[in-house]
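W.,

You were right to be curious about this one. When I first looked at the sequence I had no strong expectations either way, so I just let the prediction run and decided to look at it fresh. Below is the sequence, 133 residues in total, followed by the output.
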Amino acid sequence: QLQLVESGGGSVQAGGSLRLSCVETISTSASRYCMAWFRQAPGKEREGIAGIVGDGRTNFANYADSVKGRFAISKDNAGKTLYLLMDSLRPDDTATYYCAATRAVPRYQVSCPLGTPDAYTYWGQGTQVTVSS
């Protein structure tokens, strides 16, 4: 029902910026659902870092403390592309980054779960981000 493809990963120096994109190549327009960015570094658990949910006009975003103030999640006007703007990158941001989406959520939901990857049904293939010092 939903297919996601990430892009935009690469290698940057510490302090640099990068923008990741996640395109809904196959999507449904009938439902409201959470979209989020997760990341996983070698030897670490998958970490939810940013989520967004909304009606296409008003979106609500929430962030993990590890990226708050440095990363920004957004969607395009059509809601077909998810973005993650990353600034002030640090070496510990190095990870494979995944976009993910839930199934339909209630219309009153204004926050996306970041601590429970199992809440997300659809996943992209991941894009690698490497930050060097």
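Here's what jumped out at me. The CA atoms of residues 40 and 59 lie 25 Å apart. And, maybe more interesting for your project: The chain has a mean pLDDT of 93.

Coffee later to discuss?

I.
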